[in-house]
Amino acid sequence: MKNSTLSEHKIIKGVFKTKISELLGSKIDFQNWAYERMPEYSWLGLIMSRYGRDEGFKRTYQIVSELSKADYKVKSLRLSDFLALSSEVQKSIFEIISKHICPDALSPLTTIIDSLLSNDFCIAFLPGNVNLEVRIDRMSDLIRIMGDGSSEFATDIRFIVIYYHALTNKIKFTDIMSEKMFDYPNLKPNNPIMVLYGSMIRSLELTVLNGENKENSFDYLELFWERMFRMTNCELMQLRFEENVIDYSVQLAAIKSELNSYKIIIDQSYPFDEKKIVSLGIALFSYKRVCEIVECHLETTIAGRSVLRGIIDSLFMLKYLVLKEGEVPDIWRKYQLHGIGKYKLISEKYIEIQGDKPKTHVPYEYLDILVNEFRDKEFVDMETGFFDNLGPRKLAELVDEKDLYNFFYDYDSSYEHALWGAIRESSFLKCTNPSHLFHYVPDIDNQQKLQSVLPDAFLVMDKIIIALRSVFETREAVQK
Ligand SMILES: [Zn+2]
Description:
Layout: E1 10-12, E2 15-17, H1 19-24, H2 33-37, H3 42-51, H4 53-69, H5 79-83, H6 87-100, H7 119-125, H8 132-146, H9 152-167, H10 175-181, H11 193-210, H12 217-231, E3 236-237, H13 249-269, H14 274-295, H15 302-324, H16 331-351, H17 364-374, H18 392-398, H19 402-416, H20 420-427, E4 428-431, E5 440-442, H21 454-471, H22 475-478
Antiparallel strand pairs: 1-2, 3-4, 4-5
Helix pairs in contact: 3-4, 3-8, 4-6, 4-9, 6-7, 9-11, 13-14, 14-15, 14-21, 15-18, 15-19, 15-21, 16-17, 18-19, 19-20
The structure holds zinc ion (ZN).
Zinc ion is lined by residues 234, 431, 433, 436, 439.
């Protein structure tokens, strides 16, 4: 099935929904082949892998035909259903299977089904000369080749399941349909019609599944995966990115030199020019953060992403202030008041605390001094929202930086707000052992490095410098 493109999604209450999700919503039941059905039909998989496709189909055909005619009712080909039957019936089922295969073919399953679970299974399929490591390796190999439910191998197994249900009259086909379907084992894998039949088989197997009683499955599945997990080792995968080999020191020095020239202009000619001071402040704050990435080697870290997001915030704000200045000449002062008001709110909350004051990294008393230094704090209001009530998305639109928002900022925000995507990417490794169901492994030793943020950090920094030049468009700046 082809994945939906973004434009094919529909936004419902702020959520991009696919067509199928919109239609089916919570009715979607994700039946998992690898987790739920593969362990149940693993005995068929072992037979097919041992004897190959043609011979495997012949042997399983004989087995399922006999099972379908047995006096006792074998309701499905699930191993858990076999194991729930009486010892006498189990013996009889295993006898039928043993008649058509070498018992050793199913010996790998004795790593899961021990004598406590089914002594009859062990007697039937554990010849005694197959060592444990070999049996475990064969189970791991089976899971590897059978785990992809849409593979030709898994489709063959799913065909046998359907075939058994047809033999026991649980599903009925029209003549034409059954004629085509039951020709499936005779098709050669490179026959293009296999693709069509394969998707029919997989859909049918899902239909059969919905009518099945899976009451015996839960304990068996838990045991299956628990034992496979314990018997095999993790195979950890960590993403590796090309190391950044660019030396940014020259670029960093050039930025510093330009910022210094603006500092000199302010010192010499405009010591009280709020527009220039605020603009340079925003650019300098960003420059210092880029320096932190370089000097503290943060380029491939989580912190690097938070830094980049902050630099982008600075760019949006600087461009917005420049844009808005014509309409609101005192925008530079308003911007400062908004920020100082935020500091006032923090220090006022601290002042109101009775008794023991908290000791944190926040210098509460110094914040109070900063507020009063800017203006008598009685005249500083405390806004709780965004400056001018504009969130970053709106700011990005206004300053024509939507791409930066869509392709950088949104991603870095996942890191800033500890969203699961960022946590998964940065703090977990993937175990690629199919016997472990591809579980996540916490990256305690901090092995996972991320893609370097430095090229993007300099790209944004360059945009900030361009915005800053527009503020300092004076003869002095041009002559620097
Ligand atoms: Zn693992």
